[in-house]
User: What shape does this take?
Amino acid sequence: MKRIGVTGHRSIPDEVHGHVVEGLRAVLESHEGPLEALSSLADGADQLFAAIALEHGADLTVVIPSEDYEDAFEGAEALARYLGLKGRATQEVRMAFDRSTDEAYYAAGTYIADSCDRLVAVWDGQPARGHGGTGEIVAYARRIGKPVTVIWREGVTRD
Assistant: This one.
């Protein structure tokens, strides 16, 4: 079974959203046979990737950074999307953190990078804004020799 993990920004600007969706679909469609998708289901890229992977028949493994992770979602809609995707997962992995901290996010991101055959990064190429951010997880994956596919449109920046 091929395992594809995701790391990415929570905020995806409208002008790059369609490009990201197309890129994620292309990555997932390029693989034949059984597929496992690994995601922490954060708002933005993680949830988008998970939803598209499920559409393509992939098994979903969710990697939960902390016991209080659900508290990190802003608003009922974001939490409902998270819970809906989590409910469709075939496997759940929990990091050993009580609280959602940068260390917990880093642990989840590196777990995904360690566990996948390929990492997909919805990433603007900029340094991470905090420990465990997308740029840091991409750098980690590259250091350990993991293939990384970056999806973004050049010239578009996040807020």
Strands lie at 2-8, 35-39, 59-64, 91-94, 118-122, 148-151. The longest helix spans residues 14-29. The chain has a mean pLDDT of 96.
